[in-house]
Amino acid sequence: xxxxLVFAEEDEQSSGFRWACDxxxxxxxxxxxxxxxxxxxxDKHHDIIIIDHRHSRYFDAEALCRSIRTTKASENTVxxxxxxxxxxxxxxxxxxxxxxxxxxRYVENSSRMACYNELIQLEFGQVQAQFKxxxxxxLFTALEKSQEAIEITSEDHVIQYVNxxxxxxxxxxxxxxxxxxxxxxxxxxxxxxxxxxINSCIKIGKEWQGMYYAKKKNGDSIQQNVKILPVIGQxxxxxxxxxxxxxxxxxxxxxxxxxxxxxxxQTDTQTCRHKDMRKGSxxxxxxxxxGSDGISQRRRxxxxxxxxxxxxxxxxxxxxxxxxxxxxxxxxxxxxxxRALEILRTTELYSPQLGTKDEDPHTSDLVGxxxxxxxxRLSGNEYILSAKQTHQVxxxxxxxxxxxxxxxxxxxAMENEEQWDFDIFELEAATxxxxxxxxxxxxxxxxxxxxxxxxxxSTLRSWLQVIEANYHSSNSYHxxxxxxxxxxxxxxxxxxxxxxxTLDPIDEVAALIAATVHDVDHPGRTNSFLCxxxxxxxxxxxxxxxxxxxxxxLAFQLTTRDGKxxxxxxxxxxxxxxxxxxxxxxVLATEMTKxxxxxxxxxxxxxxxxxxxxxxxxxxxxESIKTVLRSPENRILIKRMLIKxxxxxxxxxxxxxxxxxxxxxxxxxxxxxxEERRQGLPVVMPxxxxxxxxxxxxxxxxxxxxxxxxxxxxxxxxxxxxxxEHLNNNIKYWKGLDGRNLRVLRPPP
Length: 749
Known about the structure:
Blueprint: E1 2-6, H1 12-24, E2 27-31, H2 34-44, E3 48-52, H3 61-69, E4 78-83, H4 95-100, E5 104-107, H5 112-145, E6 149-153, E7 159-162, H6 164-170, H7 189-202, E8 208-215, E9 221-232, E10 238-248, E11 254-261, H8 269-272, H9 284-288, H10 293-308, H11 314-327, H12 331-344, H13 361-370, H14 408-413, H15 424-430, H16 435-446, H17 449-453, H18 457-469, H19 480-494, H20 497-502, H21 505-517, H22 527-533, H23 536-540, H24 546-560, H25 573-589, H26 595-615, H27 622-630, H28 632-647, H29 655-679, H30 695-718, H31 721-739
Parallel strand pairs: 1-2, 1-3, 3-4, 4-5, 6-11
Antiparallel strand pairs: 6-7, 8-9, 9-10, 10-11
Helix pairs in contact: 1-5, 11-12, 16-18, 16-19, 19-21, 19-28, 21-25, 21-28, 24-25, 25-28, 26-27, 26-28, 26-30, 30-31
């Protein structure tokens, strides 16, 4: 930015602003007289001008401001008036300053930081707003020069602007249509017949397209092919109507384009009329196809720059491509594309659509409980899970045991921890429900985590103990045994050859830490419950990924607040930031609302390309496979898929472990349903009523909806035949119980 300081004499105030300009990186000029200030401004066109108004004996600050404002260059300049600080008299009015053209007033304060703060506020406030106005003005110029006829009306159908092309086409003089209601403009009866149809469509936010007739001023009828697009503006209401009308001749060929844009603001139409204009409302091909080659080229360049202001997401590009294809498509194709667009514009692009609740109540309830953020209905009986809750810290815990001093029974329970059939419940019993510390020490040692983090074993032991202490042993499922189980599954997956080819050491470290902390301080209730209950955590995280955000945040709070357990304290800053980002991303990936998005992206970006390479005989082409596996985007998808599979791998465990986990999660859901009924909250999973629930049916629904496709994809990537065998056996087991109409975990003796 360029700043002009106008001070007759050097003093602490002017020095403060000069220092502030240097600190902010702004270019600064200093003028002593009004004449030199005006000359300097006309030469440099400064973004900010600061004029000293404290000493009228030197020059008239208001007169200088008026002189600057008479120049075209000052239209988007922010001009500040520095006034004296008066403590002994009443505050004076700023209206004379505003009348003179000042943007705002600065009461003298020579503090360097006060000057710096003022400049920064100006940069991100008024100056940034002026930049946007400059862009709006360029768009306005494009409208004025456009050969397309453009009309802008208010939400009450009052015409606020028409461009010269519109006035010429419709036969009106300059300014003749401004502030007229559309009903005052002659229209053909045939168009009137269509108005109700059009309004009933566009008033509910839908596009309308069709033919109607309009009358020129001289009474001649013109036939138009019109497309009207309502645009949502301030307050979430329709404030604009973008109408693209093609003037048709006898052969119904498109000759011209008329665009009608309903402006949002009735008080500042020139400023705001382009603010919400959507890309695609202008027919760029039409705009750039007329006139000389030089003009055409400049227009192409201009429109390209305007379009580059918007960063399009891939889904936006897809929608724009489909919209363009509709223009030249037959009616049946256009209607089919409309249906496709409706699907693409939904937010749940990756979630399968269920049938009615009666058809599949178990699946429907599981989806409601795991994949939504609740009904967001506050009950008045707010569920207290506070972000200020007391958590265990290193100093409040006893000194943990060393890896070399582990009791024989625990050592024996961990002997086969590298195998998938490792029994976590045996370790839970041997450790008196403290399996995470012991299993963590062994797995982290096997992967060399202390060496990577440059931390001591005692720091790691303290950290594991702090994390485990902040899991709720009172939860039947989401306790430290579940965390240890997920840690074991993560370590097992990391040992698979394909995964080892893909991930770097920092990824392995992040995955093991994320698995350890992924459910820390879990209250034993779902996100839906917390949102419906209006819990403090739900409020803190805006009802979005509430628990997962809490787990990730608390994990780093517990780790960094005490040097005794801070496993990151010796890491280089950039490496720590990278590790932290990966851990957070993996923990957030365990949130179920994006389950199908993660799985589908994994299948389409990794499974299918690898399968295509194999089908084309490139199985041995290491470079092609490496390209798929090692791209940064795909490594992120693989890490997300890894922790997701580890988190809900219970149905792929040996049968007795699978049954035990099924009982524990069912009990936790039963307890939630009980509490929802006690508190009068919406019951998000009604089938989990301890008196009526069929556990086999709930397991089969969960496996069918969430597990099978995900583990098919993960098995195709990581080669896990033993897991798939357990999964098939467990499905048969649950189907056997369900076939006998049994609702319990095990058949009767």
